[in-house]
Specification:
The C terminus is likely disordered. The protein has three domains: 140 residues, no CATH class; 38 residues, no CATH class; 69 residues, no CATH class. Helices cover 37% and strands 18% of the residues. The protein starts with 10 loop residues before the first helix and ends in a 15-residue tail after the last helix. Strand 5 and strand 6 form a beta hairpin. With 316 residues, the chain is α+β, with helices and mostly antiparallel strands. The chain has a four-stranded antiparallel beta sheet with strand order 4-7-8-9.
C-alpha cells in the first residue's frame, strides 16, 4: 500500500464502507461448494504469488526461495483434516485463513476502489482464494498446497456464531465448531447443558464461558416441577440451579418498586449476583460488585441502561 494522507472520508465514502464489509463478510460466510476447477485456479493463483515472492527480492532477503514454489495441491474437507495430513503442529499459525480473512480484505479493497489508495497486487490471491476455500496451507518441504473446503453449514444470531441445536460451523467430514453467543464452547455446553456438573462449571477459567455454562444449566422440567411447581420458564433457570447447588449465600431480598417482583441478591463463587424477575415469567441475573450487599444498593449501582440512578415512572 502506498502512503497517502487522508484527512477524512466523504459522506459517500462513509456510506460505502459498510456495503464493502457486508459484501466481503458474505463471501466469508458462503457455504457454496467450490468445484475442482475452482481449486485448480486457486492453486495457480498461489503458485503465481510464490513465484512473484521468490523473484521480487534477492539473496537472504527473499520472502521465499525459488525452490519453495508449490508443485501440487490437495483438497481436504476441513482444516482439521489438513492438520492431520500435514502433521505440522505449527499448521494453525502458519496457515492463510481463506474465507476467514474476508473481513479485513474488505477494508483494503474499499481503500483502493473508493479512496484511490494504490494496493499491492499481492492481495489478489488472498481475495480470490478466500472466495473458494476455507483455510489453506503451503508446505514448502513437500511443495504442496493444502486447501480446505468451506463449511457446509454456518449458523449465526445477531452476527455472532450461535446454535443451540447443533454445531455453529459444520464441515463435510463432520468436523464441527460449537458456539453460543459468539463464544466457542463444547458440544456438551451447546446441546446438553443440563448434564454439566457443578465441578465443571467452577473449574472453568474463562468467565464469559462460565457465565454461559451457568445460564444454560437449566433445570429439567420434572425437577423444576418437583421443586417449584408448574412449568419451568424456558431457558431461564440456570442461575437458580447454580445458586441452589453451589450453596450460594443470600445477602438480601426485597420487592422491586417498579416491577413489584421479588429480587434476591446472592454471594456466589463467581461473585455477587442479583436474581431479578420479569412480568413475562423469565428470570435474569446481573453481576453486582462484591462490596454491594443490599438489593437497593444493587439497583443504585445499575448502569443507567438497566435503570440505575433513574427515577422510575412506569413499566411496560
Amino acid at each position: 500500500m502506498t502512503n497517502k494522507k487522508i484527512e477524512a472520508l466523504t459522506p459517500s465514502q462513509e456510506a460505502a464502507l459498510p456495503v464493502y464489509v457486508e459484501k466481503f463478510v458474505n463471501y466469508g460466510l458462503s457455504t457454496r461448494e467450490s468445484t475442482e476447477e475452482d481449486f485448480r485456479q486457486c492453486f495457480d493463483t498461489v503458485v503465481s504469488l510464490y513465484r512473484e515472492l521468490s523473484e521480487d527480492l534477492s539473496g537472504d532477503n527473499r520472502d521465499h526461495a525459488p525452490n519453495d514454489i508449490p508443485t501440487t495441491y490437495e483438497v481436504y474437507d476441513s482444516p482439521r483434516a489438513i492438520w492431520l495430513a500435514c502433521k505440522n503442529k505449527e499448521f494453525p499459525s502458519e496457515s492463510s485463513y481463506g474465507a476467514c480473512e474476508s473481513g479485513w480484505l474488505s477494508h483494503y479493497i474499499f481503500m483502493r476502489d473508493e479512496v484511490g489508495v494504490v494496493i499491492s497486487d499481492r492481495l489478489k490471491p488472498f481475495y480470490f482464494v478466500g472466495q473458494h476455500c476455507f483455510w489453506w496451507y503451503v508446505d514448502t518441504k513437500t511443495k504442496k498446497v493444502y486447501f480446505s473446503r468451506k463449511p457446509v453449514e454456518i449458523h449465526m444470531v445477531n452476527k455472532l456464531l450461535h446454535n443451540e441445536l447443533g454445531p455453529s460451523i459444520l464441515f463435510r467430514d463432520g468436523f464441527s465448531v460449537y458456539s453460543i453467543n459468539g463464544f466457542r464452547v463444547t458440544r456438551q455446553i451447546a446441546m446438553h447443558p443440563e448434564t454439566m456438573t457443578l465441578d465443571q462449571i467452577d473449574r472453568q477459567q474463562n468467565k464469559d464461558i462460565q457465565s454461559i455454562m451457568i445460564e444454560r444449566w437449566f433445570y429439567k422440567d420434572k425437577d423444576w416441577a418437583n421443586k417449584f411447581g408448574g412449568d419451568a420458564p424456558p431457558q431461564s433457570t440456570g442461575w437458580l440451579r447454580y445458586i441452589e447447588e453451589s450453596n450460594a449465600v443470600e445477602l438480601d431480598s426485597d420487592v422491586n418498586p417498579l416491577t413489584q417482583i421479588k429480587e434476591t441478591l446472592y454471594k456466589t463463587k463467581v461473585g455477587n449476583r442479583l436474581i431479578v424477575g420479569c412480568p413475562t415469567g423469565r428470570m435474569f441475573q446481573i453481576g453486582i460488585p462484591d462490596d454491594v450487599h443490599t438489593c437497593e444498593g444493587a439497583r443504585n449501582w445499575y448502569p443507567p441502561i438497566l435503570g440505575g440512578k433513574t427515577n422510575f415512572i412506569a413499566r411496560t
